[in-house]
Amino acid sequence: MNLLEIFWDDAPYVVLAIVVVGTWWRYRYDKFGWTSRSSQLYESRLLSIGSPLFHFGSLAVIMGHVAGLLIPEPWTRTIGMSDHLYHLQALMLGIPAGLATIVGVGLLIYRRRTRGAVAIATTRNDVVMYLVLVCALVAGMSCTLIGATHFGELHDYRQKVSVWFRSIWILDPRGDLMAHAALYYQIHVFIALMLFALWPFTRLVHVFSAPIAYLFRPYIVYRSREAADKHQLVGSVPHRRGW
Ligand code: HEM
């Protein structure tokens, strides 16, 4: 077993341990610093374009990763999907998703550098996080683009990277597969692991407390004072349905 195989066998567990213990530590000692540290008050125009592009792009990238890493290759073959068709659909969805995310993060960084108040609110921690994030995104996009031009076995991540990824969760790590995957996949995943290890110590922790319930909460009924005054009794004010 060479060093690279040992690395790919063990690194995921080291990173997982950092994420779990780091998140616990952050919650225990910095509960009130657990925030995305929104800068919307300082600048909102560029944010309103960059943020949705980045966040919706990321969601699509995550869904692509879930499908590509968790669904075994024989399964898609069984339902009659050829490898060519699989890679074609991965490209059609992956490239726009990756591009939207990269353009979005580019806009957010441009805003951080050019809008004075936002620049002042940017810490060294943010700079490191953005740097690793951008490297992970660019390396991922390069994988998709280079992989698209080579359909050989070495370039089919579903035979090596995806099997390695699944092997981690059944505690039977296949570092040998990852060590023999094309170098650009190894670089991308290495940077991704660095990003995961940084996660609990940066503003990225806000992902763990995203207010998803907010999307489904009952709407709030606002009644204007004028209307209430006109009808004297608040309860008798006619109102339209909220939905
Ligand atoms: C262990 C974690 C990860 C693994 C194993 C992994 C693996 C891969 C693979 C194999 C591809 C090529 C997909 C294709 O050619 O269709 C890819 C693409 C990509 N990855 Fe990752 N990745 C990981 C984490 C991340 C993270 C954390 C980010 C973002 C910060 C990221 C961003 C991207 C992007 C933007 C692309 C190109 C667009 C797309 O295919 O959606 N990846 N990744």
From TrEMBL:
Pfam families: Nitrate_red_gam (PF02665). Heme b binds at H55, H65, H188, H206. The keyword Transmembrane helix applies. GO terms for molecular function: electron transfer activity; heme binding; metal ion binding; nitrate reductase activity. Residues 6-225 form the NarG-like domain. Its main location: membrane. Does not seem to have nitrate reductase activity. This is Nitrate reductase-like protein NarX. It comes from Mycobacterium simulans.
